[in-house]
Amino acid sequence: MIKHLxxxxxxxxxxxxxxxxxxxxxxxxxxxxxxxxxxxxxxxxVNLFYEDSTRTRISFEAAAKRLSADVINFSAKGSSVSxxxxxxxxxxxxQAMGADAVVIRHPASGAPHRLASxxxxxxxxxxxxxxxxxxxxxxxxxxxxxxxGRIDGLNVAIVGDVLHSRVARSNVLLLTTLGAKVTLVGPPxxxxxxxxxxxxxxxxxxxxxxxKENRTGVSYDLDSVLAxxxxxxxxxxxxxxxxxxYFPSAREYSRRYGLDVPRMRKLPEHAIVMHPGPMNRGMxxxxxxxxxxxxxxxEQVANGVSARMAVLYLLLGGKA
Length: 320
Description:
By secondary structure, the protein is α/β, with parallel strands linked by helices. It has two domains: 8-131 and 301-316, Rossmann fold, CATH 3.40.50; 134-299, Rossmann fold, CATH 3.40.50.1370. The protein is 37% helix and 14% strand. It contains twelve helices and nine strands. It has helices spanning 13-28, 55-66, 87-96, 111-116, 134-148, 166-177, 193-198, 222-225, 250-257, 261-264, 287-290, 297-316; strands at residues 44-49, 70-75, 101-106, 122-128, 155-159, 181-185, 216-219, 231-234, 272-274. Strands 7-6-5-8-9 form a five-stranded parallel β-sheet. Strands 2-1-3-4 form a four-stranded parallel β-sheet. Helix 4 (111-116) links the parallel strand 3 (101-106) and strand 4. The radius of gyration is 20 Å and the shape is globular. Belongs to the aspartate/ornithine carbamoyltransferase superfamily. ATCase family. One of its GO terms (biological process) is 'de novo' pyrimidine nucleobase biosynthetic process.
């Protein structure tokens, strides 16, 4: 098992499958009267959050506590960070306190990689800038497998603000590793230029060898991909990260890329609708779709605890 989870690229197919299988075992605990395991008793997990979060922070806290770990929640607001303390000095403080694992959310892309060089414990990336969010990808994959029975061979459409989405990046890496095909859908201004330019039909950029089957594609027309899609993952439009006008108006964006009831009816009968949250209801997703039986949005929150329990269990449980 790996020591850190900084990127979905850290996971090969075998390791990712092990985490998903372990998450399924952890989910079985939810039905027990006593939901705790003694596995991480005596271990300390620090939630180091430099950005506001509800689902992710609470999910990691619940996961660690269900494994009997001691949990320290660190918020940048009201701490020495607000007085100018650097990430390195904060890391050295946590190291001195004997943190066995640090779960970090930070506005700077790459912060978890830097942190891992300063602490002896395991580092888990809970979101770094617009870079990655690997545990969100794991819980999404677990949700797909729970609903559809498999990941290999699924057609997944990730729709919306791909440019600013760390969720999209981690999902592309993990889902293609597990055998799914991913299509990124959105206005040209919100699809990263390097991704759009690198992808050509039928091939994936070669790394010194023969081109292999391409598992990632790009489309600027949502309606054209719905009929052949098993999973539609809608992304929140991250207005707080946008400095420029990426589309004419919210109304125009919703008209072209919002998932409403007529568009949902174009999906195959078995297809599911996902959203990492928080949602802009009425913009990227209609309330009727978000609350429909096809929606897995509430399941994703519950599955997040199981997936993060699996990550912490496998990172820390096997150590002496």
